[in-house]
């Protein structure tokens, strides 16, 4: 299958009800996935243009938008090898101490959350771009 979009934004909160978040934004997005013949594996490719990472505390974390391409080749269960190739345009990451702390806290309190509870609809984080 193929997915193509003119842009997208993902907001990743630091924790379930935290007001702090990271914003991943992209211009053009293209994703391709195909299963190889005879069930020997599959291949996925994602391309992003004008990719940016921001936090609401200090703004942009990249000095300029990044072009990115990721290709994943997956084998069957018999041969569990997987290869990943990633390429980017020149990238300069601007990371303050508070952003680093927020990243570690996000991994611990959101991505690393062991409870798979559904988050309540009583609170929501509203993101507005200034």
Structural overview:
This protein has 130 residues and is mostly beta strands. It contains one helix and eight strands. It starts with a strand and ends in a 19-residue tail after the last helix. Strands 1, 2, 3, 4, 5, 6, 7 and 8 form an eight-stranded antiparallel β-sheet that branches. The relative contact order is 0.21. Strand 4 and strand 5 (41-55) form a beta hairpin.
Q: State the end-to-end CA separation.
A: 35 Å
Q: Sheet bearing the most strands, described?
A: 8 strands, antiparallel
Topology as a string of helices (H) and strands (E): EEEEEEEEH
Helix content: 10-25%
Class per helix and strand makeup: mainly beta
Count all strands and give the number.
Answer: 8
Low-confidence stretches: 121-125
Secondary structure elements and their pairing?
Blueprint: E1 2-5, E2 8-13, E3 21-26, E4 29-35, E5 41-55, E6 59-60, E7 66-75, E8 82-88, H1 97-111
Antiparallel strand pairs: 1-4, 2-3, 3-5, 4-5, 5-6, 5-7, 7-8
How would you briefly describe this protein structure?
The chain is mainly beta and 130 residues long.
List its traits.
mainly beta, 130 residues, eight-stranded antiparallel beta sheet, 1 helix, 44% strand
């Amino acid at each position: 299958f193929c997915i193509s979009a003119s842009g997208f934004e993902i907001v990743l909160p630091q924790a379930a009800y935290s007001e702090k978040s990271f914003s991943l934004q992209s211009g053009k997005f293209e994703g391709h996935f195909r299963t190889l013949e005879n069930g020997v594996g599959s291949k996925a490719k994602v391309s992003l243009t004008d990719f940016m990472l921001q936090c609401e505390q200090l703004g942009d974390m990249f000095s300029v938008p990044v072009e990115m391409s990721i290709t994943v080749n997956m084998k069957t269960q018999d041969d569990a090898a997987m290869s990943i190739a990633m390429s980017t345009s020149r990238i300069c990451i601007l990371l303050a101490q508070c952003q680093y702390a927020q990243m570690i806290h996000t991994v611990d309190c959101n991505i690393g959350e062991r409870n798979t509870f559904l988050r309540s609809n009583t609170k929501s984080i509203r993101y507005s771009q200034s």
